Amino acid sequence: MSLAESISEMEEAVRSLRRDARRRQVLDAAVAVMQRTGFHEMSMQALANEASVSVGLLYTYFGGKEEILLAAVLDILNSFRDQLRPAMDAVGDDPVERLAAGFRRYTEIVDENRDAVLLTYRESRTLDHAGLEQIKELEVETSAPLRDAVEAGMARGIIRSADPDLVTYDLMMLAHAWALKAWHFEPKYSVETFIRAQTALVLQSLIPPSRRSHYRHLVEG
Amino acid sequence: MSLAESISEMEEAVRSLRRDARRRQVLDAAVAVMQRTGFHEMSMQALANEASVSVGLLYTYFGGKEEILLAAVLDILNSFRDQLRPAMDAVGDDPVERLAAGFRRYTEIVDENRDAVLLTYRESRTLDHAGLEQIKELEVETSAPLRDAVEAGMARGIIRSADPDLVTYDLMMLAHAWALKAWHFEPKYSVETFIRAQTALVLQSLIPPSRRSHYRHLVEG
DNA sequence: ATTCACTATGAATTATCGTTCATTTTAGCG
DNA sequence: CGCTAAAATGAACGATAATTCATAGTGAAT
Q1: Closest nt by CA–C1' to A54
Q2: Nucleotides of strand D under 7 angstroms from a protein beta carbon
Q3: pLDDT digit string (tens) for B98-135?
Q4: What is the CATH number of the domain that holds A42?
Q5: Distance (Å, rounded) from C-alpha B88 to C-alpha A146?
């Protein structure tokens, strides 16, 4: 490779980095504004102000308003996916422990991104078909570690046999409930107590009685 | 009461009936348009066309666009509330049977009003504070029969003791999941099989082993 | 210093839409 | 058939907001 080529490659890389930084700047601002007002009520002017850039600049980094929404949502879902498996790996091999840790982490992430979770429920309808498909695929991908743990547990007979997919989605729904029904749960529960109570309730169903004493710390709130 | 007064009262009643009919006509149209396009994308012109009335008329029956949204959502939630308890009363006194019947009916209603359920999740943010409060109150009211069954079951020791409120809301979330995640469940489940599978899963957690044989028809899909 | 490519600006454009209101139609009644 | 009040109409208004584009700044290379 020639020197000139190396230099041009580095320049390319620098530009790409700057581009990413700007995009993130806009996306963060977008999430912030949307959590205050909602997507439709967010004017491009308001977004530009929040991000400290001009309106015109938004259009050099994104195709339009809807593309910003999609990018913001995908950004969030990606961080979901990337954080789940590591948290589960940290607790070892036992499928039940992995499942409990996964549910815990998932719910914590929901808590840390409550507005973002609500956003995905509220605004998905706005997206076009391609965008929706991307979101659905990411959701399935994200849930994979949980499903793996459920299946592993069933294979070893530690988890009562049932449809692993149904169990996985139910767990996700209960985690989402923390964001969707915060107005109802918040007065009585903290994230911590919510997680404990749900874990106890769910595992009661999933672990056969004979195995239950092994997991007393999880089954009893 | 004079004859004149009687007549004027009847006229009043007739007018009120006509008003209600017109309001329902508009509300039905609104739900239809919103399920196609979403609230923000629905123009008053489009709504007027769907309802076969003029734009101006909308404003003689409703205060504005947002008031139509609120009315539509409340209409739906009211029908939820009115249909649940009768279905539970039909199966008798046993709390577990009542709970299962309640969950079944609730999920069926969700299925019959899928778009409407999605609407409440998508568009609640749009409503003002007073509107939101009304919705939350209705949701709590609707869930009351389920909660009653749960509490009755716990009092009699037929249902494992836990936070009845948490159990109730979890059940509602799982029913809502049928609408929220239809894209995921629909290929594999029908409403019927979905209800059976969820019922089995949930009751496994709620009924102590000693009692389980009594409810084999519910616990086994 | 000048050029050049890239980045950024924000006023102007264009379009849509919620709301109003002057006007017309309808229905009931003497 | 008029008469009146209620019901209904839809063009016009005013406001907002997404998008474009002519213009300006920036800084590295010649």
Answers
A1: C9
A2: 6-12, 16-22
A3: 999 999 999 999 999 998 899 899 888 889 899 999 99
A4: 1.10.10.60
A5: 35
